[in-house]
Amino acid sequence: MNSSISNKQFVGIDLGTSNTGVAFFDETGKPKIIPNIDGEMLTPSVVYVGPGCREILVGTAAKNMEMLEPDRVFKEFKREVGTDKIYALEEGKEITPEFLQTQLLIYIHNSVIKYFGDSTTGNIKVVVTCPAQFKEHQRQSIKKSAKQAGFDILAIINEPTSAGLAYGVNEKQGDRLVMVSDFGGGTYDSSLISYAGGEATVLASNGDKQLGGKDVDDILLDLVQKAFQNEHNLIISAQSHPADWFNIREEVIRQKHMLSSRTEVKLVARIEGKQVVIPVNREMLNMIVKQLMDRIENITLETINKAKVDKKEIKHVLTIGGSSRLISFQESIKKMFGENCILAGSVSPDMAVAEGAVIHAAKLISSKGKTIVDEGLRAIPAPSISHVDCMPHSLGVAVFGAINSGSHKLYCSAILESNTPIPCQATKAYSSVEDAQTEFHVQVLQGEEDQKFEDCLVVGDRRLNFPARPSDKDSIEVVMAYDNSGMVNVSVKDLISGNTEDITIDFYSNN
Ligand SMILES: Nc1ncnc2c1ncn2[C@@H]1O[C@H](COP(=O)(O)OP(=O)(O)OP(=O)(O)O)[C@@H](O)[C@H]1O
Ligand SMILES: [Mg+2]
């Protein structure tokens, strides 16, 4: 029996909108970032697809193709994972966000294999992170891509929880409440974590999948567009001036970054021999990103509400994600939690998520009784932290509104409520709709209690046959369980015949 596993057999991946990072568990039991094949610590989440999909480039190489062939370069596709978005290529071929996600993970897989060299055998096990707000089918899509890329998936973990693990394993400050605020390239996530006795408990999570540094870039680009129109009567866009647009966007991003350390910058852009110069200082930036910051505040306050904690009790905020460097963001956080709330220096804002993912992987492996060993077969101590996450959303089944209320519309009856600590299981009993009914259509929903069916996501669907029964009392029981690796199990029990049927949750049907 093999009860040990090499530290070169598992990694943690932060699959970001802008950048992807991967970490391993080093000989000393600390997470360490693995450089990619091109020697960089982070891989831009960008994929170039050549004609006929024959050539695929990932990362900086793909980014560099943007000026030459902008229509073949794809980025920020994480925002589209799980939607029916299709990217059409010139030659009529269509590709999906999942395809791009898989290509990115293949590149990461190759980078890991190169770094580990001969010291690894078999499939690499992995924990991949995703925004706390990702729905089930989006999580399944990541699992599918990771598998296609050659990884064995151990679990999917929420990004802020992961960063919280990286922080918790380093800090020996005793019990405390920490708000983790992750402002990245495409998403904002906030989780309130309570640290006590070596365990991190996520009290609540909330977030927006469409709120990140990209939105700041778009606002700045809009300023440039307007300036060209006003000063030169020139209408510019990505379509009309692809190469110039690429340069302008790069410049805008560069200046945005500078503004995090300087008080004023100038956006300089040139097109067709015409130039605009737009001075931007911090006050102006604060003003133009105010709406984004208001959304961040609302999401963060909502997290506190969900956790039923008094805001005054929160004295520490762990700010992570590249966009957390924006001064406007830091000011918003300080406004909410006080001048000295930001925990500085304990984890890297860019690496914490990947680091936490490998800590979780090591924890999962050791909890299964395996000893993690280095190349000399010396045991590496398992991380001293564990965590309890909570349901990011509710899961339930579709039910008809009360018949005598005249409503025949379908609604969600939540069985596992959002914010319940994971793992969890709950049971709810239902009656048939009609007396003579023998067919039961069970639709498993991701949705909140009483939410209209149309607004929920169907994650499982099965028609079951049971004997007829009176409709005036509960005769069907639905048991729903959510485990630590994010798997959902649903079984339906006919209380009359005693028969039980399991429902396979087929997330892919929603893609
Ligand atoms: N100094 C800086 N000032 C302001 N913004 C910055 C700075 N450095 C990086 N950023 C921004 O951070 C964003 C990328 O952050 P990060 O790498 O954390 O995102 P991600 O993890 O890929 O995205 P997500 O977590 O949203 O999926 C980009 O929008 C980038 O412009
Ligand atoms: Mg991120």
Summed up, what is this model?
With 511 residues, the chain is α+β, with helices and mostly antiparallel strands. Helices cover 27% and strands 32% of the residues. Strands 2, 3, 4, 5, 11 and 12 form a six-stranded mixed β-sheet that branches. It has a five-stranded mixed β-sheet with strand order 18-13-14-15-21, sandwiched between helices. A four-stranded antiparallel β-sheet has the order 23-22-25-26, with no helix packed on it.
Structure report:
With 511 residues, this protein is an alpha+beta fold. The chain folds into 3 domains: 4-171 and 347-388, 2-Layer Sandwich (Nucleotidyltransferase, domain 5); 213-288, ATPase, substrate binding domain, subdomain 4 (Actin, Chain A, domain 4, Alpha-Beta Complex); 395-510, Substrate Binding Domain Of DNAk, Chain A, domain 1. Helices cover 27% and strands 32% of the residues. Residues 14, 16, 159, 182, 184, 321, 353 line the site of magnesium ion.
Summarize the biggest pleated sheet.
6 strands, mixed
Q: How would you state the average pLDDT, rounded?
A: 91
> Which class do the helix and strand fractions yield?
alpha+beta
CATH fold assignment of the largest domain: Nucleotidyltransferase, domain 5
Ligand list: adenosine-5'-triphosphate, magnesium ion
Contiguous low-pLDDT stretches (5 residues minimum) are none
Please give the radius of gyration in angstroms.
25 Å
Note the overall shape: globular
Q: Work out the strand percent.
A: 25-35%
Kindly, what is the distance between the CA atoms of the first and last residues, rounded to a whole number of angstroms? 40 Å
Helix content range: 25-40%
In total, how many beta strands?
29
The helix tally amounts to 10
Q: Any idea what the CATH architecture of the largest domain is?
A: 2-Layer Sandwich
The CATH fourth-level homologous superfamily of the largest domain: ATPase, nucleotide binding domain
Compute the number of structural domains.
3
Question: Which CATH top level class of the largest domain fits?
Answer: Alpha Beta
